[in-house]
Design a protein that fits this description.
- The chain is α/β, with parallel strands linked by helices and about 270 residues long.
- The protein is about 35% helix and about 20% strand.
- It contains eleven helices and ten strands.
């Protein structure tokens, strides 16, 4: 079944996996009922937690390992498992599409499972863990336009029933998180700028957010959690329509804003 939608999910803190008080948790748990009722053939996740020099796919023939790439959290989080099957066919198709679009070097990683940017949201969205999952890395040494073009190359996957999810955080500055604090004005300003730019279809502005957005460097001191958004936009096509599907800010500055992009016919 062909799909028209791509998504950007803000996965925020790894405690999303266990903390009932995080608003975004209920949003992700209601995914199949309220957001996206279709069952994809497989899922491609572009996670801010896999950052490489060149695009890399994980080619896993059996079950994906659950990677606990977080430290000092409650013990129960390290006992959670998300044993989704790998998607080796999808991984090789991603490689083929990227190379066809001029990304000359695309690496394969046969050992890597799913990092928490992939498995934590999927654990809530698709708890059965029965849909094959593949990951594609970001390149934080590149820019937003590069990642938009990466997404553009992946657009044909939608016609093959693949659900494309960029997973990051709309505002992500771990040095500026403030437990028990009200929302900080600069974080809200960036979050609102992003919402307006996306809903108005100003994707070029989002590609050049460093120049266009207020507090860009403070919102994203490192761009790894923002670039998955550019991939999701590119994969939906240039005339796609953005929709805000969740909005909340925790710890004063950590935005869980999440978006759906729906392709215009023919894009």
């Amino acid at each position: 079944m062909a799909l028209k939608e791509t998504f950007y999910i803000s996965h925020g803190s790894p405690t999303l996996s266990i903390d009932e008080s995080i608003q975004a948790r209920k949003f992700l748990q209601s995914w199949k009922n309220d957001v996206f009722p279709h069952t994809p053939s497989s899922i491609l996740v572009i996670s801010g937690h896999w950052d490489t020099t060149v695009p890399t796919v994980n080619v896993v023939d059996s079950v994906n390992d659950t990677i606990y790439d977080f430290y000092g959290f409650p013990k129960e989080m390290y006992q959670l498992k998300y044993p989704a099957p790998g998607a080796p066919k999808l991984a090789r198709r991603v490689k083929e599409l990227l190379r066809k679009s001029g990304f000359n070097r695309v690496d394969e990683d046969t050992k890597r499972g799913l990092d928490h940017g992939a498995w934590v949201p999927l654990f809530l969205m698709y708890p059965e863990a029965d849909i094959p999952v593949c990951q594609l890395s970001v390149q934080s040494n590149q820019d937003g336009t590069y990642h938009y073009n990466l997404g553009k190359a992946l657009a044909p996957l939608k016609d093959e029933g693949v659900l494309i999810i960029g997973s990051g955080s709309a505002v992500h500055n771990l040095r500026a998180i403030m437990p028990n604090s009200p929302v900080q004005p600069w974080a809200l300003e960036f979050d609102n700028w992003l919402k307006e730019a996306l809903l108005e279809g100003r994707y070029e502005d989002v590609n050049h957010y460093e120049q266009k957005a207020p507090h860009a460097k403070k919102a994203h001191p490192w761009p790894d959690h923002f670039y998955p958004l550019h991939v999701a936009i590119g994969a939906a096509g240039e005339n796609s329509k953005a929709k805000l599907i969740h909005s909340s800010i925790e710890l004063g500055t950590l935005s869980y804003a999440s978006y759906q992009f729906t392709s215009a016919t023919g894009s």
